[in-house]
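Notebook p. 47: complex prediction with arginine.
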Amino acid sequence: MKERVVLAYSGGLDTSVCVKWLQEKYDAEVITLTLDLGQQEDFSEIAARSKATGAIKHFQVDAKEEFLTNYVLPSIKTNGMYQGKYPLATALGRPLIATKLVEVAESEGATAVAHGSTGKGNDQVRMDVTVRALDPNLKVIAPVREWNMSRDEELVYAKKHGIKIKPSNSIFSIDQNLWGRSIESGPLEDPNTEPPDSAFEWVTPPHKAPDSAGYIEIGFVEGVPVTIDRSEMNGLELIRHVNQFAGRYGVGIIDHIEDRLVGIKSREVYEAPAALTIIEAHKDLEQLTLTRNELDFKAGVEREWSWLVYSGLWMDPLRFALDSFVRTTQRRVSGTIRVKLYKGGLRVVGRSSKNSLYTSALSTYTKASTFDQSSAVGFIELWGLQSRIAAKIASDATGEKNVEHPKRKQSQALKQKSK
Ligand code: ARG
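Predicted complex, structure tokens below:
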């Protein structure tokens, strides 16, 4: 009996060649699986291509809602961002793709799953780790990692086997879903070259964006965006709307040098208008509704969570535990944030919440103030106590008032002593 393999299939060159290669090299029956994560593609064309390449069966799964609910929304609550720059779109999608591969493999009696990741990136780690955590009996095959073909060799292989390739003339390597579009390679491999306008599909180049500013009001309930300009929207629609709106104003382009898990520094370009806008708004709302202690501690949790997600450890128990902490913090994160967008820039210009900790009576400089200024005196007395003691002891010993910046003659004296 032939071995059965379920392959994560995008319909592109790599995964199309994978189908044939798995048949040849492993003498396997190949089942293809394509997930709709909101990347807006022609899925019937992908299905047709799978059939033409000789897959025995093709599954197309609409996983948009699941992606939103279990991956994107937790990331919004956590302000998920790798190295302060990358909103994790691809990284969030991979464990869901791996989960569905396992589901199909189990229901179809397959002994292995396969994916088109190379051996140089993060995606292989995310896929392999998740599959193996979910079903240790499944074998994971990554043909591209094994076969060592260049793109040109892949094209020759495809031609030889009559594999029809999507007539994509893109010079870039693209991965996209609801939460963002990752753009790599081609001219971007030179970190000193500005990305050409042709790299971008979601964001209008800022110099072509409207000449007047745009405003958008995002309403959150417990950390989840639920309204735009005061009207309710379903989550998928809301994110699509913000992607389009912010993108039109030139907002959403990210260009950075990213540290991959395998040690490679890589030039990464992203389009993520909704992610950048929503996270900026969400952070501002937290600033209004959470205490300083909560904010401070949460910043460390956000960093750790983002690292776990980036590095393929979606299944790590620590990620679940951090999620629970974040969920608890979000109970008061409800309110409305007004964002102004203009030629590639965005700024929060207004915020309101029934849970706001901002108290006018305390902060106002008018007569209406209820803040007792005299209590500041005693507070300062104790707050600076240790600094004052340390300064006094140092100056008693050296005769200097500012021991951080001793006068020249004194440092010279010290030098002489040590000779
Ligand atoms: N550097 C990003 C990440 O590791 C994007 C990867 C894009 N993946 C791809 N197969 N093109 O998440």
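Notes: Residues 370-414 form one domain. The mean pLDDT is 95.
Next step: compare against the earlier run before touching the bench.
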